[in-house]
Write a structure and sequence with these properties.
single chain; mainly alpha; 77% helix; globular
Length: 348
């Protein structure tokens, strides 16, 4: 394969690149696991909480498209990464640190809180998307060596696991050590989690920028007679819509379950506050272990469909258990968390 003769990327460079997405990963884990819980715990209605979450997702969708196009045209990966990281850190601390507009205007109305949290949720997702796109697209411009590209991506994924487990370890410690009795206690809990996450993530962002050089765009196929496809080409392919639909539904399962799991274990099962961290951590660890095992298999189209179907069936069973399981059987949730971890690994 063209580019495989190029010298492999040094281990140090791989590590410096791999830590570049830590801030995004650790804040995203906190965002999807605890944002809705935090907003409703401090007094906003479920409707207002949904508006806050939706504003962020809309901003993320648009920014991903435009950031990708601009980075493709102009490069400057580290500039985009650095700017996005700053937006992530500032906006994330503003969301979990309290309603900034409420402090400025001296008004704690629910409408102003919703507007304030929605604004910073949108800013957070703008920064998050810019950081993600610049970091992921950088791989193809760091090296043409296909093996090194796989190693760089694998290192990034490994540190994603570290980020998620770090978040849940921090949350477990905070929920266990600092029990909440008032709204102020709840706010302090999440501030500790958010600020700790930002500090850890920013440390790794600094390491990334120190150890990673700005890559130059490399036109891998220049002069080889390959025709550049128009972006409209894919909209004429049925497979494009099939893959998009499957991916969307898969992400819907994983993201929605992650966002509402904390509500379920606390409000329905009446489990300890620390379970908001322990249960997600168990799911993630189990999913990671199963993913490693699956990588050793030889994959065919039929096998992919079979494993995906098994994952879907497991999720249906878990969903049924959530609907009908009485609160007195809350310890079963630990077993279900392992099953969910297996299911997530199979469908993703």
């Amino acid at each position: 394969m063209m580019g495989d003769d190029e010298e492999a990327v040094a281990r140090g460079s791989v590590l410096f690149y791999g830590v570049g997405h830590m801030l995004n990963d650790i804040t995203a884990a906190c965002w999807f696991t605890y944002l809705l819980v935090f907003i409703t715990d401090i007094g906003l209605s479920p409707k207002d909480a949904a508006v806050v979450m939706l504003s962020g997702q809309i901003a993320d969708g648009f920014t991903t498209i435009f950031a990708g196009e601009l980075i493709d045209r102009f490069g400057h990966f580290k500039v985009w990464h650095g700017a996005g990281s700053i937006l992530v850190a500032v906006s994330f601390s503003s969301v979990f640190g309290g309603c900034v507009p409420c402090i400025i205007f001296g008004n704690d109305s629910s409408s102003l809180q919703t507007i304030g949290y929605s604004f910073f949720a949108a800013v957070f997702n703008v920064g998050w998307a810019a950081t993600q796109v610049s970091h992921m697209s950088m791989v193809n411009c760091i090296t043409l060596n296909s093996t090194s590209r796989v190693v760089l991506t694998s290192c990034r994924n490994a540190f994603s696991m570290v980020a998620n487990l770090s978040l849940y370890a921090i949350a477990f410690a905070v929920f266990h050590i600092r029990p909440s009795k008032t709204t102020s206690d709840v706010e302090n809990q999440y501030r500790w989690i958010a600020y700790s996450s930002i500090f850890i993530g920013c440390c790794f962002v600094v390491l990334f920028h120190i150890g990673t050089k700005e890559p130059r765009l490399k036109e891998e196929f220049r002069g080889h007679g390959y025709e550049k496809l128009s972006w409209t080409f894919w909209f004429k392919k049925l497979l494009y819509y099939q893959v998009a639909l499957v991916y969307m539904l898969t992400r819907l399962i994983t993201n929605v379950s992650q966002a509402f799991l904390a509500f379920y274990v606390i409000n329905d099962l009446r489990m300890a506050q620390s379970s908001k961290a322990l249960i997600p951590a168990m799911i993630y660890i189990c999913s990671f272990i199963v993913s490693i095992i699956l990588q050793e298999l030889t994959w065919t189209g039929q096998r992919l469909k079979g494993f995906f179907s098994v994952g879907g069936v497991l999720w249906i069973l878990c969903g049924s258990a959530f609907l009908f399981m009485p609160g007195s059987m809350k310890d079963v949730m630990y077993f279900l968390s392992l099953v969910i971890g297996i299911a997530n690994a199979l469908i993703t």
